[in-house]
Amino acid sequence: MPPAKETIVVIDDEPEVRSLIEDMLRGLGYTVLATGDPQAALQFARTHPDPIHLLLTDVVMPLMAGSTLCEEFRILRPGARVLFMSGYETVEAYGVRLAPGEPVLHKPFKRSHLEQTVRAALLYHLPGSRPRTSPR
User: Most CB atoms closer than 10 Å: which of 33, 49, 126, 136?
Assistant: First the structure.
């Protein structure tokens, strides 16, 4: 598979988890903007000069819920996809409303699962919208 060219914003309040995800995604060829602060993620959305293709966010964080971050991020970057990750069985209990078939990344995960789930999120389209054949 050729290297990825998309840009992903990664937000997780656990530094070790965030660093591991960042390393895995960079190893797959993605450009990664990583932070533990939701306000910094929103600042990336406001100021990053190039397209941002995906927001990969933890569902439960101390400073802002992942669902709230997602809403604000989508206002700033309406074309970006969102992939929620969680160590919990269900994300719906934490205010996340998923569309049918929308991918979720459950922790812990292996690099291969991260790769597959990120690709699925980049290609995912909301029901009723036009399918994407390539997120690039």
Answer: 33
Domain regions of the chain by residue span: 1-58+76-95+118-127
Residue with tokens 């389209």: 125
Distance CA 108, CA 11 (A): 16
- Token pair 């049918």 in the structure block, residue: 100
pLDDT, average across residues 38-63: 91
Q: Is 4 exposed, middle or buried (0-12, 13-18, 19+ CB in 10 A)?
A: buried
Write down the CATH number for the domain with range 1-58+76-95+118-127.
3.40.50.2300
pTM of the predicted model as reported, rounded to 2 decimal places: 0.83
Determine the pLDDT at residue 88: 61
Strand, helix or coil at 59? coil
The string of pLDDT tens digits covering residues 94-130 is 556 655 567 788 889 999 999 999 999 998 865 544 4
32, two tokens: 């990664």
Q: Do residues 69 and 42 touch, judged by C-beta distance below 8 A? A: yes
